Amino acid sequence: MISIVMPVYNEGPHIEGSVATVHALLLQHGLDAQFVLVDDGSRDDSWAALTRLSQSLPGIKAIRLSRNFGKEAALCAGLEHADGQACLVMDSDLQHPPELIPRMVALWREGWDVVEGVKAHRGQEGGVYKLGARVFYRLFHKLSGFDLSGASDFKLMDRKAVEAWRSMKERDTFFRGMSAWVGFKRHRLPFVVASRVQGTTKWSPVKLGRLFISAISAFSSLPLQIVTVMGGLFFIGALGMAVQTLYTKLSGHADDGFTTVILLQLIIGSALMFSLGIIGTYLARIYDEVKGRPRYLVSETSVSPAVTPPISTQE
Prior knowledge:
By secondary structure, the protein is α/β, with parallel strands linked by helices.
């Protein structure tokens, strides 16, 4: 059995249709599966739709979080409540094409521990978002050493890879980076991002900026070294300025140098504030981690009756 993990946020109008589409595909290919649907504090009727699904379809485990914790926390909840020998993570708006699921399962059965969907084309995504993603992944690669070019949350992970992922206890998570960090035998499967069945993206520029900062600070301490490098450069510059100042003073050619002093103060002050900002980011991560708060809180669950037969049985 495989577990299909879907985070859900304000997907009420189409979530039943999305799950029905995936369910029909699994039935067609004779795949035994469980759905783990995580309502991340939706403000519409998503939970009512998930409850109806658990009453009308077999193999449904619906989980409602106590508030909106974010997609990363919803993914954590889904993976931690999945029971399958493998877990497949996909978006509930079907931008991750369900028709690739049989191929991903076949590759897993061939011995691959992680089958990850890689975006060959980002679909109808705006130019600004495409540029931002390209810059982020290049910078992430340079700083952390992990190449996430074209990466997505569309992945099938063997149980041992899931357990390795679950052993990582940080509170502020970045699923794509963490799933790359655990390693194992990996197969990259290209796909084209499909159009949404309904609705719009839930990612605002502010949320993407927060994810960018969180991902970089979680997987690389190199920004902290920038502070050290800047300090060294300014120290060398200060020595040069000291030598030059002493020379002009002793030679009797000392100038007022008012403009130079103002410029130096502005540059050094800006560098100090920038450095404090980098240090503050890492201190904030430490502060969040040492508090030890849970990644999410479950409000209620709705599970298909245990007597219901599985989605399908193989001869």
